[in-house]
C-alpha cells in the first residue's frame, strides 16, 4: 500500500477518546449542546502555524497522483474544477466497471477480522481516525473550499469540524445500539428441579459492503455520517466521490487506510472509487450483490432510482426538496429580514437546507414596525440582503462561489421566473479572480390560487441563490402550499414567523404532517438552514426530500445484524 | 362499528401495565429469562373454567359473520378449512382491490390523533390490547389450533402466550426507541455575552399505513411483532390474513378495535383485509403509495417480490430457508437423538425453524456410546422418533395435523428423494377423525461431493416432516454445505453437535458468516426450533431466509420518524 509519510498526531485539541464518546452518547440522549471539534479556525484555538501548514499540505497535492490504495483501479483521472479557480489537477486512481470485482473482493477481505475486533475496538479505531482527520482539518478545509466553492470559514466548519461532529454522532449512536445487549450471558429458566441454563453469545455482524456516494457541495459533511456509521458497525466502505469534489474524500480515505493499517486491519476496508465524469460508476456499484448498504446525497432523480433499483441494499438517500418559509406576522421585522438574509446568502443558497419559497399574504403582515405590505416585505428582505453584503470583501466570505454552470444559469435566468424583487449581482473576489460569485436573487410570484401547484415555477427545487417570494391569499393558503409541496416534492427545512400561537400551532401540525423540521420565529443567530450535531436531526426521512436523518437510531440499526449462539451452561 | 358484547377483563393473570413494561425493557437489555404471559394452560394457572369458556367462545363463531368493522368491504368470504376437520365456516368482510381506497382512507383517518397521543399513551393502550387478548387466550388457542393444525398446547403457547410475549417485546423495544430523546428541552450554546437558548420539541411521527401479511402456520406468532411494533409507533395497521388462517387475526383485530374505541381512538387504526384464496390482495395492498410498512411471513418467492416491488415501503420479510444440523461427535448420543426427534416431530416439522438437513460424516461419529456409523446415526434418530411417538394419543398432541395438501404430498413422496431411514406413518386422531396426522420421514442422501449443491433435493426448502440425513465426506464438508446453502438459500436456525472446541469454533465462524443463529450440543429440554422471547432473536436479517429479526432495534426504528420544532427560548 502506498501511503504518505507519517503525520504528527493531532496537536490541536483534546484527544478523541472514551471520554469523548461518553459525552457524545450523553448528548444524543439529552439533545443538549455538544461539540468535540472546535469550530473556530482561530490561531488562539489551533495555534499560530496550523492554518499555514494546512494550506501548504493542501497545495502540495496540486497536479500530483494522490496516494491512496485502490485495488481494481486502472489508470488515473483528474476531474476537479474549482469554483474559485484554485489550481487542482490532482489525479486519482480510476475505477471502471471492469475493476469492481477486484475492488469488492478487496473490500471484503478484511471484513471478518474487523467484525471479530468487536464494537469497542472498532469504535476506538474510528475515533482515532476522527482525531487524525481533525489533525488535518486545515488541509481538509482548503480542499473543501477549493472543490465546493464554500468560503474558507464555512469550509472549515461545515467541511471540517461540523462534519467530524456528525461523524462522532453517528459513532455514538452506533456504539449505543451495538452494545445494548451483552456480548455473552447465561440465561436461566425456572423449571421443575434445576433451572435450565443456557450460555448465549450475541455478535454484531456487518451487513456487507457499504457504498457512500458523495455530492459536490458537501463532500465531507454529507458523507461522514454514513461512512463512519457503516465502518464502525463492521462494514467495508467504498467511497464514490462526486467527480468535482474528490480531494476531501481522498484525504479522508487515505487517513482511514493509514489508521486501519497501523492498527493491524486491512486498509482496503475503506477505498476510494473515483471515476471520469458521467462514467456511471455509482449505478454499477450500487446494484452489485455484494453491496448491502448505500448512502447517497444528490439529485432526487438518481436518489429515486437507487431506492427502486438497489433493492438488494439498505438505501439511505438525501435528495432535494422545496424548503418553505411562512411569514404571517412578526415581533421583529428587522430580526426576521436579517435572519433570512443570512440564510439566503450563506454559500449562495447552495445548501439543501436553504429556504426557497417565502410565503407572504397578499394583504401584507403585521409587525413591530406596523403593517407591512407584500411589497414592503420584499423590500425589507432585499434591503437586509444588500446590507449584509454591502462590504464586498466580507460578502465573498459569506457567499463563496457558484458551484457549477447549472446554478449559474438558474440565477442568470431568474428574471424569467417572475417579478424581480432583488437582482443578483456579480462580485469580484479580491484574492481569487476566477471565482464566480453571485449575490442572491429574489423573485415575486403569485401562488396561483386553488388547484395543483405542481407545474408552477416555485413548485420545483431551484437549487442556488434564487428565492421565490410567493404571494398567497392568506397564511392559511401559505400553510396549505407547505403541506402540498411538502408531500409532493419534499422539504429538508421549514420556517414560520408569527406572533399568533394558533398560527404557530397550525404550522406545527403541518410540519408534523409533512414530516419536516420546523424553525419558529428565528430572528437572532440561529438559522433555519443550520442544524447542530447531537441536538438537531438533519432531515427526517418522512418526506420525499430524504428517506433518512442524520443521525437517529434508524440511521445506524440497519447497518448490522445480531447473530447469536447458545449452548447448555453448567449448573 | 359492530362489536361483540363487552367481555370481562382478563382475570387470568397479573395486569399488563407499566411494571410489565419496565420488566420487559430490562429483559431486552439483559436478554435474561422473562415471560409476562404464563405458558401453561393448566387450570391451576388460568382457573377451572377458562379452558371450557374459551372453547365455547371459539365454537360460537362457527358459521357466523364475524363482527369486525372494515370500510371498503364488499360481501363476505369463508375460506378456512381445518387440518383437524374442525368446523369453521366463519364469514369475514371481503376486501377487493376496489375497496382499497375506502379502506386506506379509513385507516389514515385516525392517524394524527393517535400520533398526538404520544408514545406513553400509545404504549398504555397497546398493553391494554395485549391484556385483553390474554383474556381471550383460550379462544385464540382454539382458533389457532383449528386453522393451523397445531396441537392444543402448542396453539396455546406459540399461538397465544408466546405470541403475546413477542408482541410485548416489540412494544418494549419501540418504547425504548421512541423515548430515547426528550419530548422537549432547552438547548443552550455558549456565546459571547448571553448563551443562545433554543426550545426544542421532538415528536415521534408514524411512517404511514402498515400492512401485515399473515401466514397459515403461525397466524399470530408471526404477525404480532410487526402488528404491534407498527401500531405502538403510531401507524395504522391493515392485517391481511392468509385465507386459511383468518380467525385468530380476526379476533385480534376485533380486540384492537374494541380497545381503541373505548379509549377514544379511531377503531379503524386496525382493520382486517380478508380475501378469497388467490385473489392477490397482498400485491395490491403492498404497493399502494399510502402503504409505508409491510411485514410479511410466507414464501421466499413472494417475499422476494415484495422486497423488489414494494419499494415505497419499508419491507420486513420472513421467508424460507434450509436449516442445517451438523453432527460431528457427541458426549450424549441418547440426548442428541432425543433432542432432534422432538424438533423433527413438533408440529410435524412445519416450522420455519425446524431442521431440514442433518449432515453426518460417511465414516460415522464418535460418541459416549462408542463409534456410530452413518447408518447407526440414522437408526438412532429413527428409534428416538419412534420412541417419542410410540403412544399415539400422546403423539398427536406433539405432531398436530398436516396443514395442507402440499405438505402432505411432500411427505407421501419422500421415498423418491433418497433411501428411507424412517418411513412416515399415518396416525388416527382420537378426537378429530378427519385430522391428517403424519409422523416424520427421514431420508438418507449423499451430499454429492464437490460442485454446486444447488440442484440436489436437500438443497431446497422441503417444508414439513421430511428430514434429510446427508452423508458428507467429513465435518469440514458438512460445514462447507452449511455455508454455501446458508448464503444461497438462507437459514432460520442452525445446530452443531461436537465434543471438539475447534469444531465448535469453526461452526461459530460459519454461522457468523452465514448470519444464522447457532445452537450447540442441545441434548436436553432446549430445542433448536424454539426461541425465547426477550432473549433469543428469531431470525437475523443477515441471510436470504429473512431480512429482519424478532425483535431487535432495527425492527422498530424504521417504523417512525422524529420531527422537531425549535424556537428561541427566553433567557
TrEMBL record, chains A, B:
It comes from the Bacteria. Residues 92-502 form the Aldehyde dehydrogenase domain. It holds the Pfam family Aldedh. One of its GO terms (biological process) is L-proline catabolic process to L-glutamate. GO terms for cellular component: cytoplasmic side of plasma membrane. Transmembrane segments: none annotated. The keyword Cell membrane does not apply. This is Phenylacetic acid degradation protein paaN. The lineage of its organism: Bacteria, Bacillati, Actinomycetota, Actinomycetes, Propionibacteriales.
Amino acid at each position: 500500500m502506498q501511503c504518505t509519510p507519517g503525520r504528527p498526531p493531532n496537536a490541536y485539541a483534546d484527544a478523541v477518546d472514551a471520554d469523548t464518546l461518553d459525552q457524545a452518547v450523553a448528548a444524543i440522549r439529552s439533545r443538549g449542546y455538544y461539540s468535540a471539534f472546535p469550530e473556530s479556525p482561530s490561531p488562539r484555538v489551533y495555534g499560530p502555524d496550523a492554518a499555514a501548514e494546512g494550506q501548504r499540505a493542501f497545495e502540495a497535492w496540486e497536479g500530483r497522483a494522490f496516494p491512496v490504495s485502490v485495488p481494481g483501479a486502472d489508470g488515473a483521472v483528474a476531474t476537479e474544477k474549482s469554483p474559485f479557480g484554485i489550481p487542482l489537477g490532482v489525479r486519482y486512481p480510476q475505477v471502471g466497471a471492469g475493476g469492481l470485482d477486484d475492488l469488492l473482493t478487496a473490500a471484503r477481505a478484511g471484513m471478518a477480522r474487523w467484525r471479530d475486533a468487536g464494537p469497542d475496538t472498532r469504535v476506538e479505531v474510528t475515533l482515532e481516525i476522527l482525531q487524525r482527520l481533525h489533525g488535518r482539518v486545515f488541509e481538509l478545509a482548503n480542499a473543501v473550499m477549493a472543490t465546493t466553492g464554500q468560503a474558507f470559514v464555512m469550509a472549515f466548519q461545515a467541511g471540517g469540524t461540523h462534519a467530524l461532529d456528525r461523524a462522532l454522532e453517528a459513532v455514538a449512536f452506533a456504539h449505543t445500539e451495538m452494545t445494548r445487549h451483552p456480548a455473552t450471558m447465561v440465561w436461566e429458566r425456572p423449571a421443575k428441579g434445576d433451572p435450565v441454563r443456557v450460555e448465549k453469545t450475541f455478535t454484531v455482524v456487518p451487513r456487507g459492503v457499504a457504498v457512500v456516494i458523495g455530492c459536490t457541495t458537501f463532500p465531507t459533511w454529507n458523507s461522514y455520517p454514513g461512512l463512519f456509521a457503516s465502518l464502525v458497525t463492521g462494514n467495508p466502505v467504498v467511497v464514490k466521490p462526486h467527480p468535482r469534489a474528490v480531494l476531501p474524500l481522498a484525504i479522508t480515505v487515505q487517513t482511514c487506510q493509514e489508521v486501519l493499517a497501523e492498527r493491524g486491519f486491512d486498509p482496503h476496508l475503506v477505498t476510494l472509487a473515483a471515476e471520469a465524469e458521467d462514467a456511471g460508476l455509482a449505478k454499477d456499484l450500487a446494484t452489485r450483490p455484494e453491496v448491502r448498504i448505500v448512502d447517497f446525497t444528490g439529485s432526487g432523480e438518481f436518489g429515486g432510482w437507487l431506492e427502486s433499483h438497489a433493492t438488494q441494499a439498505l438505501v439511505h438517500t438525501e435528495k432535494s426538496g422545496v424548503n418553505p418559509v411562512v411569514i404571517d406576522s412578526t415581533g421583529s421585522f428587522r430580526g426576521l429580514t436579517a435572519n433570512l438574509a443570512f440564510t439566503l446568502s450563506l454559500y449562495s443558497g447552495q445548501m439543501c437546507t436553504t429556504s426557497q419559497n417565502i410565503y407572504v399574504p397578499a394583504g401584507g403582515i403585521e409587525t413591530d414596525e406596523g403593517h407591512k405590505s407584500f411589497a414592503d416585505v420584499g423590500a425589507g428582505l432585499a434591503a437586509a440582503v444588500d446590507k449584509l453584503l454591502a462590504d464586498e470583501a466580507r460578502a465573498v466570505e459569506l457567499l463563496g462561489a457558484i458551484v457549477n454552470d447549472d446554478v449559474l444559469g438558474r440565477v442568470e435566468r431568474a428574471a424569467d421566473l417572475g417579478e424581480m424583487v432583488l437582482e443578483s449581482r456579480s462580485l469580484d473576489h479580491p484574492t481569487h479572480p476566477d471565482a464566480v460569485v453571485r449575490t442572491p436573487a429574489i423573485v415575486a410570484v403569485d401562488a396561483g390560487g386553488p388547484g395543483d401547484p405542481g407545474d408552477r415555477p416555485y413548485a420545483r427545487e431551484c437549487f442556488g441563490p434564487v428565492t421565490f417570494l410567493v404571494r398567497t391569499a392568506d397564511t392559511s393558503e401559505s400553510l396549505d402550499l407547505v403541506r402540498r409541496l411538502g408531500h409532493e416534492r419534499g422539504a429538508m427545512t421549514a420556517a414560520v414567523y408569527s406572533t399568533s400561537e394558533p398560527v404557530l400551532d397550525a404550522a406545527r401540525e403541518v410540519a408534523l404532517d409533512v414530516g419536516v423540521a420546523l424553525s419558529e420565529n428565528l430572528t437572532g443567530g440561529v438559522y433555519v438552514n443550520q442544524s447542530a450535531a447531537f441536538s438537531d436531526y438533519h432531515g427526517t426521512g418522512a418526506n420525499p426530500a430524504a428517506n433518512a436523518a442524520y443521525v437517529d437510531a434508524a440511521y445506524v440499526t440497519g447497518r448490522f445484524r445480531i447473530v447469536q449462539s447458545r449452548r447448555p451452561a453448567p449448573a
